[in-house]
Design brief:
Blueprint: E1 2-4, E2 10-12, E3 18-27, E4 30-37, E5 40-47, H1 49-57, H2 62-72, E6 76-79, E7 90-94, E8 97-102, E9 105-111, E10 117-121, E11 124-128, E12 145-149, H3 162-173, E13 185-194, E14 197-203, E15 207-211, E16 216-219, E17 223-230, E18 236-249, E19 252-262, E20 266-270, H4 275-281, E21 288-292, H5 293-305, E22 309-310, E23 324-328, E24 331-337, E25 341-345, E26 350-353, E27 357-363, E28 373-380, E29 382-383, E30 386-387, E31 391-397, H6 401-410, E32 415-416, H7 425-433, H8 462-466, H9 471-476, H10 506-512
Parallel strand pairs: 3-6, 17-22, 27-32
Antiparallel strand pairs: 1-2, 3-4, 4-5, 7-8, 8-9, 10-11, 11-12, 13-14, 13-19, 14-15, 15-16, 17-18, 18-19, 20-21, 23-24, 23-31, 24-25, 25-26, 27-28, 28-31, 29-30
């Protein structure tokens, strides 16, 4: 039997290799025909039931049916899936197929030939699937990982746990040859800022594994960029691994992994290399390597993944650093202008390629003279989905404006909103030395037009205010050097005198009106 795709790919199955045939109804008006050869399942999906009737009838009638019967010499078995909806059951292995059974019926199955990664994390068996962008439908979601929780029912400590037993059965038929060994090398206790924690890095030929409180497996096909940076104080080195699709943990996704290493830390490691790997790496990796820890990890990543490294650009700030301190929203961090992109660390790690930028603008440069910072606004190019979001980096020192603008123009980035005149620093000093009393000059005072209640206050005679003050009163306000100031007497509250007026109360007067 032969099958040919629209792209020209063809598959031929010989009758001597066919073990059995199955028909599975997977939806309304659709079904699957499965042909098993040497323990492998060839799945043909989306077949209408009427076409299945033709296939089944060819085993009994007419010349074509006789030829089909002679080819297969098998009856098509009808398989029913359980729809009970439970998520616990029993795994059963049938050749290279792992069936998940619930009450004796199949819930689903996994062709182990498509499994790319497999490992166990305590009682979890983690099964990873490849990311094939060439066959995936645009915009569709693809399952990349499945976790099976396996309770340990093995009481003998000397024997492998139940999860390890299930994992060993998966690895026997899965296409994860590199996962069966211990890997090329393991780097222990690597500090990661994102996702935060300490991990042991197991480096394999086609993926790496981060083992910590939560273990993750990352294929090298998902790595889009590897960036090496130095901190502003140059005490630590930073390694950023950019991923597409991002690493997911629960509902949180991590498009970048950031690891930080001391700049002066030595390390010696032993590499487990096969003969094929030695030929593949062309002597770039040795069985025993020693040196700086960051340089060793960088060299292993560069050789095994084959991805070029992105280094610090030629930008130099006023403080002779490769980064600028700023804020992205409410997060304080550092902005690194690289050769072909911006990258902001630490939270959130943001990568902005220069070829995706429409233009940048320097805002608040012509603001108040007392302002010593400005904003960098990055406008992104429009995409098919519409205009992309813009980025605003706040609180950048004004001294960084000229070197940053010069660097961006040299990289071909369009710049607008630049300052025309330099800031007069002398004016800032004068403003700081001005008297605060100038802000309260009498000419600028406004009249108080508010009305106040007189209450019990007695009106003051205007003749009393116009009378000259006596010398005795002036002298009382003067304190001589030899006289010690007298303590101020506490003020007494005046009691309100009872009214002697013969006028009727206000309520009575209101009634008379």
């Amino acid at each position: 039997i032969g099958w040919k795709s629209k792209q020209g790919k063809s598959i031929s199955l010989l009758k001597d290799k066919i073990d059995r045939l199955e028909w599975i109804t997977v939806g309304k008006g659709k079904g699957q025909l499965r042909i098993y050869t040497d323990g492998q399942a060839h799945i043909y999906d989306g077949i209408p039931p009427q076409e299945f009737t033709k296939i089944e009838d060819t085993q009994e009638f007419t010349k074509i049916e006789d030829a089909a019967k002679a080819l297969f010499d098998k009856e098509i078995e009808h398989v029913e899936h359980t729809t009970i909806g439970r998520n616990w059951g029993q795994p059963e292995f049938d050749g290279s197929i792992m069936n998940f059974m619930i009450d004796g019926k199949k819930a689903f199955d996994i062709p182990l030939s498509i499994v790319e990664q497999a490992h166990h994390d305590k009682n979890d068996v983690v099964i990873g699937f490849p990311q094939d962008s060439s066959t995936a439908i645009e915009g569709a979601e693809t399952m990349l990982e499945m976790r099976l929780w396996v309770p340990n029912v093995e009481s003998d400590i000397s024997k492998p746990s139940t999860a390890e037993s299930v994992l060993n059965q998966v690895l026997e038929k899965a296409d994860v040859l590199s996962a069966k060994g211990t890997g090329i090398v393991t780097f222990e206790q690597v500090v990661a800022k994102t996702p935060r924690g300490r991990y042991d890095l197991d480096i394999f030929s086609n993926f790496m594994r981060m083992k910590g409180t939560q273990s993750s497996t990352i294929t090298y096909d998902c790595i889009t960029r590897i960036t090496q940076l130095a901190t502003v104080d140059e005490k630590d080195r930073i390694l950023i691994i950019s991923l597409d699709p991002p690493l997911r943990r629960g509902h949180t996704s991590y498009p970048h992994i950031l690891m930080q290493f001391p700049a002066e830390q030595a390390l010696s490691v032993e590499l487990d290399l096969t003969k094929e790997q030695k030929r593949k790496f062309d002597g770039k990796l040795e069985e025993e390597m020693s040196g700086n820890k960051f340089d060793l990890i960088l060299q292993v990543f560069r050789v095994v993944t084959g991805i070029k490294m992105t280094k610090n650009g030629s930008f130099e700030s006023v403080g002779e650093s490769t980064a600028i301190r700023c804020s992205l929203k409410a997060h304080d961090g550092y902005l690194y202008p690289l050769a072909k992109c911006f990258i902001f660390i630490y939270n959130p790690i943001t990568l902005i390629p220069f070829d995706s930028i429409a233009h940048v603008e320097f805002a608040r440069l012509q603001g108040t003279q007392t302002s010593r910072t400005f904003d960098l606004v990055i406008f992104m190019k429009a995409t098919r989905q519409g205009a992309d979001k813009n980025y605003i980096f706040n609180s950048i020192n004004k001294d960084e404006h000229q070197p940053l603008e010069k660097y961006l123009r040299s990289c071909g980035v369009a710049v607008t909103g630049t300052i025309e005149k330099t800031v007069d620093t002398s004016a800032i000093v004068v403003d700081e030395e001005e008297s605060e009393d100038d802000d309260f000059s009498g000419a600028e005072e406004e009249s108080d037009d508010l009305e106040y209640d007189d209450g019990d206050a007695v009106p003051i005679d205007a003749d009393v205010l116009a009378a000259p003050e006596s010398d005795d009163e002036d002298g009382d306000d003067i304190i001589r050097a030899d006289d010690s100031p007298q303590p101020e007497k506490p003020s007494k509250k005046r009691r309100r005198k009872p009214s002697t007026s013969t006028s009727p109360p206000k309520k009575m007067a209101k009634k008379e009106k």
